[in-house]
Design brief:
The complex is a heterodimer.
Chain A (H helix, E strand, L loop, with lengths): L15 H8 L4 E5 L21 E5 L3 E10 L12 E8 L4 E5 L13 E8 L5 E7 L3
Antiparallel strand pairs in A: 1-2, 3-4, 3-6, 4-5, 6-7
Chain B lengths: L8 E9 L10 H16 L8 E3 L6 H9 L5 E3 L7 H15 L4 E8 L19 H5 L8 H16 L3 H15 L13 H6 L2 E3 L2 E2 L9 E9 H4 L7 E10 L16 H12 L8 E4 L4 H11 L7 H4 L18 H4 L7 H13 L12 E8 L4 E8 L5
Parallel strand pairs in B: 2-3, 2-4, 9-10
Antiparallel strand pairs in B: 1-7, 1-8, 4-7, 5-6, 8-11, 10-11
The chains are: A mainly beta, B alpha/beta.
Chain lengths: ~140, ~400
């Protein structure tokens, strides 16, 4: 088992500010100024009220494991990293995001566990947001 | 009040090509034409009768296929919703036929992911700025099993569903496959066998996951009026419903334990004027055991969260109260990437009473449920024999 690979995301013009922030170790989220919905995945359009009045706000970087799997058979660049934890974390601001849980053994992850964001530099001016247990 | 589209169109031809070896020695394009010809022959129609070609494997798929066959159509559809595409096609064709946009529609699918003769095996390739590539893929989201395992884990967390209960589903479908000479996997399995198979993405084991095989199939649809003059007993479209909750990214699914079938199912049943208790045979998309379990709950065969207990005791298998996936399903019969075609073909066969060892006696009403993407788009078709009109 090796460390997880740092796969650079496919950044778009619309999502550039989000990824620029990750490179600085900050997690930001788009928030609708019309109805206050915190939007995920990031887009400059509110799927709750159809407004395009959207601003970026700082996230706390904390959340709870909503569900997770231990991937035993990874594909491509992830093959040597298996077993690894793929998880769906519910951020305290509301959105649920796909991510990895790192900094603990896969067997120690549970649904409902509190987690904190940690960033992994991709070397391409972006960083992946992963999460580690809050109690470590 | 009876829905105006209820029973107004029928499936009059239904065939598939599946090999117990898992491989078919034909290209996907050849198989598509093979299937259209065979389905038309089944119906007692010819290629000259066709005025609508519907398929979805690649860009402008239906146009290229029609061109290959020498068909100039007046209605076409290439809707791509993953594995539920064919149920959506039946829904669309039923509406188009009833409205007079076309009279004879063929719906076709072929893929050869096992023998690898088709570069687009299983469906069109992904590209562009899909959210999936930006927000999911960097975290190691390669296998579809990963998405479904997240749903399974959440279902277990909320409702106490167990791996043993999920395994019961694989065991039941394998028992049906043992009665189907074309099934890829026919050896009986036990719950312990499923639990002992390698873990792919916890909590899903290898035997919780569908096969990878070649496969092809086609359906012919026409108006109820014309159907009565054709070779086979018509299988009428009584109800249809579609619902989608998200795209290729399961992180956008509102509730990991509930699929769109909770909407498409009740809508299709309401249109058909039947209840789940009236259904004689269920054919559903079992990409993974959890998909089947959630679908049974969402269609209303049991309450949300009770699927685990519901599938215990062989209820879905031969001799059980709710015969389900009587061909062996995607878990044991075939799974070329988009299994929804085979769901429909088997439902038609059961209602025609034409299968041998696995025939559900007296089957009059069948439900065919497709589920495509990553639990993204569900489409439910309620089918019935002449006696249900």
């Amino acid at each position: 088992m090796t460390d997880l690979p740092e796969i650079a995301p496919a950044v778009t013009l619309e999502t550039r500010p989000f990824w620029d922030a990750t490179a600085e170790g900050r997690l930001i989220l788009p928030r609708c100024n019309a109805c206050s919905t915190v939007i995920w995945y990031p887009r400059l359009f509110c799927p709750s009220c159809a407004s395009d009045d959207v601003s970026w706000v700082d996230a706390a970087g904390t959340g709870t494991v909503y569900s997770f799997t231990v991937v035993r058979k990874g594909q491509g660049p992830f093959a040597p990293a298996a077993p690894y934890v793929l998880a769906y974390v519910e951020l305290d601001e509301g959105p649920r995001v796909m991510t990895n849980i790192v900094g603990c053994r896969p067997d120690d992850v549970t649904v409902g566990q509190r987690v904190v964001v940690t960033f992994a530099d991709t070397g391409e001016a972006t960083a992946l947001y992963r999460f580690r247990p809050a109690d470590r | 009040m009876t829905h105006p589209l209820r029973g107004q169109s029928a499936i009059v031809g239904a065939v598939d090509a599946v090999s117990p070896t898992g491989s078919l020695d034909r290209t996907a394009s050849q198989l598509e034409v093979d299937m259209v010809r065979a389905a038309l022959d089944d119906a007692g129609l010819s290629i000259r009768d066709v005025d609508s070609v519907i398929s979805t494997s690649g860009m402008m798929a239906s146009l290229d296929l029609a061109e290959r066959m020498g068909v100039r159509g007046r209605y076409t559809d290439t809707t791509m919703t993953g594995g539920s595409s064919f149920e959506v096609h039946v829904e669309h064709a039923a509406a188009a036929i009833s409205a007079g946009y076309c009279e004879v529609a063929v719906i076709v699918y072929a893929a050869t992911p096992r023998s690898g003769k088709n570069p687009f095996a299983g469906g069109p390739s992904m590209g562009g700025d899909l959210p999936f590539l930006e927000w999911d893929l960097p975290y190691g989201f390669g296998l579809p099993a990963s998405s479904y395992s997240l749903a399974a884990r959440r279902h277990m967390h909320e409702y106490g569903t167990t791996s043993e209960q999920l395994a019961e589903i694989a065991v039941a479908f394998r028992a049906w496959a043992a009665k189907n000479p074309n099934a890829y996997r026919r050896d009986p399995i036990s719950v312990d066998d499923v639990l002992a198979s390698p873990m792919v993405a916890e909590p899903l084991h290898k035997l919780d996951c569908c096969l990878v095989t070649d496969g092809a199939g086609a359906l012919v649809m026409t108006s109820a009026e014309r159907a009565r003059d054709l070779r086979r007993s018509p299988v009428y479209v009584l109800g249809a419903g579609t619902a989608h909750t998200h795209g290729m990214s399961i992180s956008q699914m509102p509730d990991l334990t509930t699929s769109g079938a909770a909407v498409s199912g009740p809508n299709a049943f309401a249109m058909a004027g039947v209840r789940p208790a009236d259904v004689d045979v269920v054919e559903l998309y079992d990409s993974f055991t959890i998909t089947a379990l959630m679908t049974l709950e969402d269609l209303g065969f049991c309450a949300k969260g009770e699927g685990g207990a519901f599938v215990e005791g062989g209820r879905l298998g031969p001799g059980g109260d709710l015969p389900t996936n009587t061909n062996g399903g995607g878990l044991s019969y075939t799974h070329p990437g988009m299994y929804g075609m085979f769901v429909l073909v088997e439902a038609v066969r059961q209602l025609r009473g034409e299968v041998v060892d696995r025939q559900v006696a007296g089957a009059e009403i069948a439900v065919a449920n497709g589920c495509g993407g990553v639990l993204s788009c569900t489409s439910t078709i309620v089918l019935g024999t002449e006696s249900t009109l």
